[in-house]
Specification:
heterodimer; A: mainly alpha; Ammonium transporter fold; B: Alpha-Beta Plaits; four-stranded antiparallel beta sheet; 2 helices; about 35% strand
């Protein structure tokens, strides 16, 4: 009797063990399915930010004769950067190499498949992580086009973007997000810099590079006395709204999971956009007496830029503050400072992305808190203090170092690349082509054939 | 035959069109133009860049009418286009050498 029931009990506990294991597996795969679906959606959202978000935003701001050329500068990168990324870009950022650039382990996406890469995201296929990061690599160079709008040769731009990806983006992205990167806070960097979704990697590098381009290429013919009004702000408003929505993928997706942290980043992102739009609008209303639509949408973008590095680290009300500060600061950068130094950063890539990104990166050091992000642990597993509000004011210094590296890399890299492109192809269009407009001279097209 | 060219305020166009129809003038060519006489423009500001815009949107009407109806048309048009403020516009009259209906070769006033 006893023997039979002992055997029966053994059988029951074996069943229970198997059922428990099966249950754990299905929980894991449900979490993974949730994470993966959010990450694929985020990837789509970030691509949407480039096309049509940025294409429309920038396109509406230029003169009619340049709208197609401007949109093409964003669109073609969706093709070009994808190929570069697939061949070697992903590897140079995310494989281990030196603290400054990765290696060739993932050349031709070798080994990048369904299996997760636990260094980065343990619950999604590495291929998802790869394609998500690709969308960042696409939009970053596209942002620079705002500085040289209406006067850069298309062929030179393609060469420039290719070289810039290799010389500036891949090293910076590796330093901040790649394993062993010099600034990587999560994976053993010497100077842990908090950059949740790319304030330094995306906005400072592109914004500062934009300034260098604007200075190197020089002002547009007729600037500033000839009127160069936005030809269609309706397009820009649509573009800005697509950027706002897409940014949820950019920031909240950087949680790399459908988690509470993603929610927190989503909220911070939205709050910053909202208060920044109000901040710029208020500043403009006071200074000029009329709150413009262009100001409101520019403000919202400035806030989104500033919250980018902070999004997964700060609470909602600091996010409101960061956004508001960005709205006001970027307003002054774009109106007062630009006219003071009279450089032709045509679409304010530096004024919004360079300045907003720098402000956001530094404020991240102030407001980052483990109450939002408790993933940083010491060797004993205790949660680490993050920013000044946690009592770790020294983080601001780390942020400054990361910011300085981004500035330095952008300035030096961009200057070298511009020189090379200028020698090989010539970067600025001929004056006749500039007057005729890029649409006709570069692409042989007119945007609006409304009489037909 | 006379050709009347009238530059008027865009928001008065409907009034003028209805007034012309009421006196039996159906044919006209309408274009959207920009211009100014003594009317001041306005200021636009884009991200801190100020622009004085002194070319204002107007509507140009062109119509060819029989000689006998000239004064009637001028009176109707000016009455319906007038607001009394600077910017109301101007009207010019030209001689027309010939008029032809393309469909059937009608000439002169019967082509109008």
């Amino acid at each position: 009797m006893l023997l039979v029931s002992a055997a029966a009990m053994a059988q029951t506990s074996q069943d229970a063990g198997a059922r428990l294991a099966a249950l754990e597996n299905s929980v894991k795969s449900a979490q993974s399915a949730g994470d993966n679906s959010w990450m694929l959606i985020s990837s789509a959202l970030v691509l949407m930010m480039t096309g049509p978000g940025l294409a429309l935003f920038y396109g509406g701001l230029v003169r009619k004769k340049n709208v197609l050329g401007t949109m093409m500068q964003s669109f073609i990168l969706m093709g070009l950067v994808t190929v570069i990324w697939a061949v070697v870009g992903y590897s140079l950022v995310f494989s281990e190499g030196s603290p400054f650039v990765g290696g060739l382990r993932y050349l031709f996406l070798n080994g990048v498949g369904a299996a997760p890469n636990p260094d980065y995201a343990a619950t999604i296929p590495q291929q998802t992580f790869m394609v998500y990061q690709l969308m960042f690599a696409i939009i970053t160079p596209a942002l620079i086009s705002g500085a040289f709008a209406e006067r850069m040769k298309f062929s030179a731009m393609l060469l420039f973007m290719t070289l810039w990806s290799f010389l500036v983006y891949f090293p910076m992205a590796h330093m901040v997000w790649g394993k062993g990167g010099f600034l990587n806070a999560s994976l053993g960097g010497s100077v842990p810099c908090f950059d949740f979704a790319g304030g330094t990697v995306v906005h400072i590098t592109s914004g500062v590079s934009a300034l260098v381009c604007a200075l190197y290429l020089g002002r547009r013919k007729g600037y500033p006395h000839e009127p160069m009004k936005p030809h269609n702000l309706v397009l820009s408003v649509i573009g800005a709204c697509l950027l706002w929505v897409g940014w949820f993928g950019f920031n909240a997706g950087s949680a790399l999971a459908a988690s509470a942290l993603a929610t927190s980043a989503f909220v911070a992102t939205h709050f910053a956009a909202a208060s920044a739009a109000l901040g710029w609008t208020l500043a403009e209303w006071i200074r000029t007496g009329k709150p413009s639509v262009l100001g409101a949408i520019s403000g919202c973008v400035a806030g989104l830029v500033a919250i980018t590095p902070a999004s997964g680290f700060v609470k909602p009300f600091p996010a409101l503050l960061i956004g508001f500060a960005a709205g006001v600061v970027c307003y002054f950068m774009v109106t007062k400072v630009k006219s003071l130094f009279s450089y032709d950063d045509s679409l304010d890539a530096f004024g919004v992305h360079g300045a907003g990104g720098t402000l956001g990166a530094i404020l991240t050091g102030v407001f980052a808190t483990s109450l939002v992000n408790d993933s940083f642990r010491d060797s004993a597993g205790r949660v680490l203090a993050l920013g000044a509000v946690d009592g770790h004011g020294g983080q601001v210094l780390n942020q400054l170092i990361g910011t300085a590296i981004a500035w330095g890399l952008a300035i030096v890299g961009t200057l070298v690349i511009l020189k090379v492109c200028d020698m090989i192809l010539g970067v600025r269009v001929e004056p006749g082509d500039e007057t005729e407009g890029l649409d006709l001279s570069m692409h042989g097209e007119e945007a609006y054939n409304l009489e037909s | 035959m006379k050709k009347i060219e009238a530059i008027i305020q865009p928001f008065k166009f409907d009034d003028v069109k209805e007034a012309m129809k009421a006196i039996g003038i159906d044919g006209m060519t309408v274009s959207e133009v920009r211009g100014h006489g003594r009317q001041k423009g306005h200021k636009e500001v884009y991200r801190g860049q100020e622009y004085e815009v002194d070319l204002l949107p107007k509507v140009k009407l062109e119509m060819v009418i029989p000689d006998g109806r000239l004064e009637e048309v001028i009176a109707t048009l000016t009455r319906s286009a007038r607001t009394g403020k600077i910017g109301d516009g101007k009207l010019f009259v030209y001689e027309v050498a010939a008029a032809v209906r393309i469909r059937n070769d009608d000439r002169g006033e019967s082509a109008l």
